[in-house]
Design a protein that fits this description.
By secondary structure, the protein is mainly α. It has one domain. α2 runs antiparallel to α3. The longest helix has 28 residues.
């Protein structure tokens, strides 16, 4: 096995859960990719907003983790990681929205904020 892992991890409940989550994420991001070039304004906004919204949700989770975890029990690079995710979100938005109409830019930024808020709420619920 890789890195000296035991073969039993291939059938562990956690491994199966991660595989299922990966398949689900692939379906969601695949649909978002198709939506990003859709003729419908709403679908296009959702497709363009999903990736940067997820990046921002993860960044906010890391900032909250930095502020709520004891210094002895947390990694030292959480804020740097959060900053990198925020930069990636901005780059993704600029890349997808370059040359688009102001209404589409506003719609996509609003959808990005909504996705980030839903993701942040999901993190809060799932992590207690």
């Amino acid at each position: 096995m890789a890195r000296g892992s035991d073969a039993s991890i291939l059938v562990s409940n956690r491994a199966i859960l991660w595989v299922l989550l990966g398949v689900g994420a692939g379906a969601v991001f695949g649909a978002a990719g198709a939506f990003s070039s859709d003729a419908s304004n709403l679908r296009r906004a959702v497709g363009n907003a999903l990736l940067p919204g997820v990046f921002l949700a993860e960044a906010s989770h890391q900032v909250i983790r930095q502020s709520t975890t004891d210094a002895d029990g947390r990694p030292d690079d959480l804020l740097a990681f959060a900053g990198l995710l925020a930069i990636l979100a901005v780059v993704a938005l600029v890349w997808r929205l370059h040359g688009r109409a102001a209404a589409e830019v506003a719609r996509t930024i609003g959808m990005t904020a909504a996705v980030a808020a839903i993701g942040g709420l999901a993190y809060a619920v799932l992590t207690g």
